[in-house]
Every structure is written in structure tokens, then in C-alpha cells.
Amino acid sequence: MARFAFAAHDPGGANALLAAAVGARARGDTVICFAAGPAAALWRAAGETCPSTLEELLEAHRETSFDLLVSATGFSDFEKNMWPACRAHGLASLAVIEAWSNFKARFEAASGDLVLPDAIAAVDEESRRVLADAPWCTVPVYVVGQPHLQRVAQDLRAARAGRIRGDVPLLAFFSEPIDDDYGRARRGFDQFEIAAHLVATVARAGDRRIAIKPHPREDAGAWRRWLDASLSQGVATLDVSDTSDLLIRADAVIGMTSMVLLEAALGGAPTLSVQIGRAETVHPIIERCLPVVTRDAQLARAMTALAARIGKGAQTPIAPPLLALIDDARARFLAALDACMAGAGKTTGL
């Protein structure tokens, strides 16, 4: 049986690792989770104790000898500080990229230095090819799928099948910290501009309401101030409930490039990506799986089409690229862990 240290800071990576931890423990492995930032709250809510410092991880390694560090690839230095420190103590690392964008940025420290783990896990073959072709990526890359999305496909579709609709359709808008992570100049829009487009369109239609869900790394107060100043005409409210709860309650889901859009689609919800004015394509899989609005003139028609898909009885079919992501993802993830341990001179004992 193997002993793993799992580490994460951002919620997307935390979700992917938590789903993989279930599979590792089911086969008898030990998983101890280390987390900071939004990931700590997410994992503690799931019952993990979550020590939060590099010193605690290294002390645990000295006491019980982990076989592998499995980390997310957040935009803070939390995971990046762990990789070289663990390597110096004889512990190899596998870093998981759970998304399709900003590959190099995930390995650039605040100092500007490039910091690499001993191996990288990508969600699909296209991502693996991009990484393999990048001159800066000099470590092995494994394709593992997305175990979190595999779980969502099972749980969310079942939960939505028994939901009760309200009298007025509820559209959930899942925000992202575009202004912090990219900047408006790079993306061509920010989250507040997209929300303004949606509010104006829904206000003209008059028969729907919008629940704005801030990203875990966003300040909900900024959204409250925006709503107070935006004259949202009563169609938009702030929603700080749990993401899974809102995905069940929502009649349709709207976002920009958040992974939550893929969760919603896998859960059978009518889903729309709005990227009006975009300057670049960030998540290619969204283009392959979902309707995407890039011009203001397209929005009203797209919103009408979205509304027409609400309450049809049958859930939205899953697009083939999404099916490829979730196909046996947990088993592929565990196989990558075993391969990393074998490459570092370790075996699982299974």
C-alpha cells in the first residue's frame, strides 16, 4: 500500500484531487491532505484535517515517509514551494493541471523563476501534446482525465433528475476572477462586464432571474457593491450558497470559462458560455462542448435558445469530448500515481 501527500490551494485542483483520493483510499492507500486558501475550506468541509504548511508536510514525511507528493497547480506559490523542498528530502512530486489554460503560468513563481515538479498530469491528450511540445516542459506528462468531473457526472445528474422547478426560471451565473487572473486587456472582458450584458438581456425579457455566484477567490463584497450600483432592475441577486446546491437548483447555467460550466453540462443542465469581446480562447474544450457567445449581437438569441432548453423533460446530452474526460478517469489517475512511484524507484506493493 502506498502513502500519498495531497496538496492544493485553488478550488479546481482541490476538487480533482479529492475525487482521486477517494479512489486511492478505496484500494488501501493512505492519503494525507495539505491545503491552504480556498482548498483548505473545501477539504475541511469534506472531513479532511488539512495541515497547511510546508514544514508540516516535511515533518510528516520524516516521520512516516510518503511515497509521492500529489499536488494541484494553483496560481499561488503554495504548491510550487513544495516541489523542490520535497525533492531535496527524497520525495518525488506529480502536479495535476485540471484545466486547459495558463500551463506555463502554473509553474512560474512570484519571483519569475520556473519551478517544475518531477512529473505533470494533464486532463486530455491535446493538453499533453501542448505540454510535450513546450520547450520549458522537461518532465514526463501523463493523461489522467478529470476524476472530479467523473463524480459530478454521476451525482449531479441524479440530483437534478429529482429537482422541482420554480415559477420563474433561475439562471445561475458563475463568476471568475478575470480581472485578477488575466486582466481585462488580455481577455477582452471582465466578469462585471459579462454580468452587465446578462442583466440587460434578462431585464428586457422580463421572465427570468439571475443568481450571481462569486468565485471562491473573489470578494463577495465587490459583487454586492456592483449590484447596488448597477441598477440591476431586480433581476439579479447575489448567491453565496454551495456550488453543488446552486447547480441543482438552477434551471440553466451561464459562465465565461469556468470549469463549473463543464460540471453543469455533465449534470444535464442547459449551459451557455458568454465571452463577449474576447481577445483569446482560453479553454478549447468549452468551444467543443458548449454554445459560446462572443458578440453582444448574439446574446439575446442565445439566451432565448437557452430558455427553450429549460424544462424539456430530458436532460442535456453529454458532448463526446466530455465523455472522453470522465471515461475511467479515477483509474487513469491512480495508474499515473503508480507510474510516478515506479519512476522514482518506488512501488505500490500491489
Notes on the protein architecture:
The structure is a single chain. The protein has 350 residues and is of the alpha/beta class. It folds into 2 domains: 3-145 and 327-343, 3-Layer(aba) Sandwich (Rossmann fold); 165-312, Glycogen Phosphorylase B (Rossmann fold), CATH 3.40.50.2000. 46% of the residues lie in helices and 14% in strands. It has helices at residues 11-26, 37-45, 54-64, 78-88, 125-133, 147-161, 178-181, 184-187, 191-205, 220-229, 243-249, 259-266, 284-289, 296-308, 320-326, 329-343; strands at residues 3-8, 30-35, 68-71, 93-96, 119-122, 141-143, 170-174, 209-213, 236-238, 252-255, 271-274, 292-293. A 6-stranded parallel beta sheet has the order 2-1-3-4-5-6, sandwiched between helices. Helix 1 crosses helix 6 (147-161), helix 1 (11-26) packs across helix 16 and helix 6 (147-161) packs across helix 12 (259-266). It is globular, with a radius of gyration of 21 Å. It starts with a strand and ends in a 7-residue tail after the last helix. Residues 345-350 have low confidence and may be disordered.
Give a quick precis of the structure:
This protein has 350 residues and is α/β, with parallel strands linked by helices. It has 16 helices and 12 strands. α4 (78-88) links the parallel β3 and β4.
Keywords:
single chain, globular, 350 residues, 2 domains, disordered C terminus, six-stranded parallel β-sheet, alpha/beta, Rossmann fold, 16 helices, 12 strands
Q: Round the Cα radius of gyration to an integer and report it.
A: 21 Å
Beta percentage is 5-15%
In DSSP terms (H or I, runs of 4 or more residues), the helix count works out at: 16
CATH fold title of the largest domain: Rossmann fold
Number of beta strands: 12
Structural shape: globular
Largest sheet: number of strands, sense, barrel closure: 6 strands, parallel
Structural class: alpha/beta
The top level CATH class name of the largest domain: Alpha Beta
